Amino acid sequence: MENELIDLIIDDVPVRVPAGTTILEAAKTAGIDIPNLCYLKELGPYGACGVCVVEVENCPKMLRACSAKVAPGMVVHTKSEKALATRKLALELLMGDHDGDCQGPCKLNCPAHTDCQKYVKEIAEGRFADAVATVKETFPLPAAIGRVCPHPCEKACRRNLVEQPISIAQLKYFAADQVRKDGNERPIKVAAPTGKKVGIIGGGPAGLTAAFKLAQWGHDVTVYDQMPEMGGMLRYGIPEYRLPKAILKAETDAIAALGVQFINNFKIGRDADFAKLRSWFDAVIVANGAWKSTAMRVKGEELKGVWGGIDFLRAVVTGEKPDIGERVAIVGGGNTAMDACRTAVRVGAKEVFVVYRRTRKEMPAEDIEITEAEEEGVKFKFLYAPDEIRGRRKPVPVVGKFEEIALDSVIAAIGQRNDPEGFADLPQTPKGTIAADEGNFATTLPGVFACGDTVNKGAGIAIGAIAQANEAALAVNAFLRGGEYKPIKPILSERNLTEKDFEDRPRIARAVMPQRPAEERKHDFKEVNLGLSVEAAQAEAKRCLECGCHDFEDCKLIRYANLVQADTQRLRGDFHPGFTEQKLVTIERNQRKCILCNLCVRVCAEQAKQGLLGLVGRGFKTVIKPEFKDPAATAVCKDCRLCAENCPTGALKIIG
Amino acid sequence: MCDCCEKSDLSKLTPVFEAFAGDDHALISILQKAQEIYGYLPTDVLYAIAEKTGNSPAKVMGVATFYTQFRLKPVGKNLILLCKGTACHVNGADSIEKALVEELGVGDGETTDDGIFSIKTVACLGCCSLSPVMMINEDTYGSLTPAKAKEIVRKIREASK
Amino acid sequence: MKLVFGEGSCGIAAGARKVRAAVEKLNTEGAVEIGITGCIGMCYLEPIVDVYDGGTLVKRLVKVQEKDAERIYRAVAGGGRGATALPELADLEISADDKEFLEKQTRIALRHCGLIDPEDIAAYEAVDGYKAIRKVLAMTPEQVIEEIKISGLAGRGGAGFPTWFKWNAARNAKGEQKYLICNADEGDPGAFMDRAVIESAPHSLIEGMLIAAYAIGATRAFVYVRAEYPLAIVRLEKALAAAKKAGLLGENILGSGFSCDIRIKAGAGAFVCGEETALIESLEGNRGMPRLKPPFPAEKGYTQAPSNINNVETFANVAWIILNGGAAFAAMGTETSKGTKVFALTGKIKRGGLVEIPMGLTLRDVIFGIGGGIRDGGTFKAVQMGGPSGGCIPEHLLDTKIDYKALGATGAIMGSGGMVVMDSHTCMVNMARFFLDFTAKESCGKCVHCRIGTKRMHEILTRITEGKGKEGDVELLQDLCNGIKAGALCGLGQTAPNPVLTTIRYFRDEYDAHIREARCPAHECAALKKFSIDPAKCKGCTMCAKKCPVGAISGTVKQPHVIDQSKCIKCGQCVATCKFGAVTVG
Prior knowledge:
- The complex is a heterotrimer.
- Chain A is an alpha/beta fold.
- Chain B contains seven helices and four strands; from the N terminus they run ααααβααβββα.
- In chain B, helix 3 (43-53) crosses helix 4.
- The longest helix of chain B is centred in the C-terminal third of the chain and has 15 residues, at 146-160.
- Chain B is elongated and about 50 Å long.
- The two termini of chain B are 25 Å apart.
- The mean pLDDT of chain B is 89.
């Protein structure tokens, strides 16, 4: 009887297995993976999760593949409409009751999804080279971006609900600086050459990131830039006192070291036309940025002494020594305005005003930048907008709501836009930017992709351009391999928390960045921030709440939720009761993520022969707990860790 | 009450263990007898039962928390079982519960500060024709109205003083 | 003359023991013989006292109170004899109408209930008790199973599976030791026939079990009784002891060589233990969580040995079938449902209690014919059948035949026989919420679909009854219902959606009124009630304003008062306080 072979059909595949085999095991022999969460071959079926349900022809009820045995002539459908719907409902019910973060809010809020939690933890553990390698999984410029990024990660940081966010950006550049100092950066692996050539126009954050990625994947990459050095706005728009050129240069050199060819002083339309350049490459990425200042549209704008913000900053960097006189007004409230006013102070202006049409609270610039500008003597005129600029001095009393200020120069830092010249072949948006697909950044020209400040919505923050470049690189890579890249938004579990959830957390102050005093720093271009010490950085990194799940990569629950495209919100309601931090020797239990598959209870009893765990309570309120008379008795746990190893979610974590 | 200060007279369990000696499936029966003896299931009693029956404490706790009959905390002198069965629901069991909560200041699963009453709602007492019904200790009270329910507990409270 | 007191749980709860104690106090010289019996099933008339004269019932006194004890005693102790006697007790006598309640029934499972002393084995033997087991011991087990097959008896616990088939499977299963289990974990709220049988005729259960044990070859048997039935446990214990003493139980029963031992196991409060594999887990001393099927209990049940499980009512029919023949049982009922079925008729019904009728009568026959229709002049809205696994059947389906198939087609089920009648004051959404509250609390928590699914359904239903329902909630409920039916592990979960599905099917308008208009058509949902004062009736006594806990009522003395809706917390104090009926609830 046991040796009898049974023939059946699973998903149209004929299968022959011994009698007594379950449908789930039979399917495996045909390479069909039936999702399941509570099944372990060694323990036999349990039947709790209901994810392995399959439909069998002529059987009115759905069967659990983990326990239903094969029968001769059985016709099984593992993906029938009803099986999928029932499986999806199980996963939606589990996700709706899953009070856990798949990934930290920091990572989710970073446009490029940099794994902040991971590198912060590596820094906390003193593994700085690992931390840099982690950042470089996303982009090649940790020291530069760490200094200039407005860090949306920190805005999302849960530590905001305790006291202040983790200094994620500062930690990032701390690690990069430290590794550069220690000379122990992990080498970047480059795949075997593919023989495909990619041309990238623009050597800013977007172009460099795409180049860095594509080079690692074995493609032959050339980056063209109109300026004498690579770095784009990081070099020509960000002043030295915020991001020293030498630091940026070290990071761009590291990209070149991967075999990426840099060609500077090259401008499309001047040195080659776009069609020609295309013909040299298998694929092209246009990432030429937004290098034109937006006009103020006031009378007198064309007069001498009126500068565009980025034009002024670039002139300072290229050594043109712009003569702006003693009294300077900067119009605008963004970071470029702050960079411009503080640079104006440094090039010798005696009186610098920032004229902004709204209030301080509404300024888009980082608060710390405004404060630092104030410290350096910059004056702010809020709720003012320029009306007219006149060529000569003529004091006029204040009439009504108008005021006349005598100035030597005006710097308009109210925005920037791209320059479409030379790219007539590419379709444009009504704004004049290059139109690219929001998902894979393909243009209508085959093999031409465009990303960064030059496309769609136009100028944004560097990390936003980097995020686009990563997608564009993936798309180029797929294109070069004959495919098409379509990004899929992953389904994730996210917690919704408030201050109340952290009431009992100890308050720990955020690291304070040491700075040079304003009176000293305002006279030169040396870096304002002195950087965190190793001790301060590690202490700061240890403040991390580690929101993201340690088991994200291996979590069966989220894998299946994505597989069936489960709606995680549809069946949200009360969460089952749960506590964190129930420790059993080296196992930390987070009941909030427990799905009651009971595998830990069963392996502890049946495999480890310990029986230390049990289900407590009934129904929705059931929890799994170790039950001991006194804490010292935890010594009976053999620490075999089978429970944690078999947990299909991140409910059990091995610590220490 | 915490584990460390709970000290029950475990010798009372001896006859129970003797009565069920050799029966490997008597855990629920033993817990029922233990609850009759102690009025509830103190933690040390649960551990003693685990040890004696060869079950892990985790399993004993699992069984003791699965069934509604078992109590892990002491109950009041008078246990009110308020029926919330279908017939009682249709005939206004909710208003009886509300009246009891008003009168006693405690709700389902709770005990009054003076320890005179505990309230527990139950699925069905099987006296559906007398609905709404409650049972206090051994006595069943049927065809309740909110006023009648209050009156009954008041009388018992007077008698308990 | 003999006075027999109806002392089932209902009778006792209604005061039967107090009346008997009062009579016994007077009866110091034993002028009157005093006895007890179980529940006759006319719960709405309890306490009931029967007057017997030489074994003949001459008077049935109903709704007897302690104050009536003395005159009953005097009348019986010194009164005349015969059916026309005791004219002084005429006011206590059952009415002709109420007599119909019993007269319209056909009693097989309940045949001895309320008629014999449950604590006296001789009383059972006097009405042909234990004759069937004697007959069976002379038959082969196969013949017994054949007789049950002819009868068409199906499991009365809810599923309606053919009894003979289960017996046969257990008989044919391989195993040295086989077990017979009686499911007396009558958990459906609103059903109490099993309690009545055990309390009123425990020997008929024991005899039925012995016959089944003989048929399947089981030598050990359990009765799993719910802990909420202490009286049933006491009476069953007594009956088992008496049967053992009489040689009807234990080793070598009646010298036949057949041995069977029956033990009681008290449940500890878990509805899911009505599911047979959960019941087995519980019998083994574990958490009552269902097992995967297959293997079925007939193959691997209690301690992995072949086991057969039937419920109390099923067993209560067995001895009758053996004595009267399977054909006599099968002669009653319909094509697909044979014999009789007991219903627990409760709710807004005029005459509530236990009703046993042949299959094939209509719901209308039972509710209006036997039950006398809706009480307090109300109008019928729906009848809930099958408890938390069943559904609500509306007025236009009242002529549905009582038959497994016909009832199933309505979306409800026969179930164990709970029949809860509702009138226009019952909100059907709230009814669905009530059942999901029950199933969510009783879910064992093992499988995802039931554990989280019933909880979510309850949350959605709760928000609808609170006026916080959203457009699309009904569709979401339906989606959940279908998925839970397909994915839940055991019967509890698979049937839990039924009350929701049937109320949506027949009372969708009530759901829509809650969701779209924040209105409860039955005026039951507290959050949606609107209290107002009828100025024509209000005398301006100010009582309601004084009583209102939130100061929502204002007005001057002797002038009509008004309720500020924004402040009103809908507690209903004003309604209870007003002596003029001026507060209306809309």
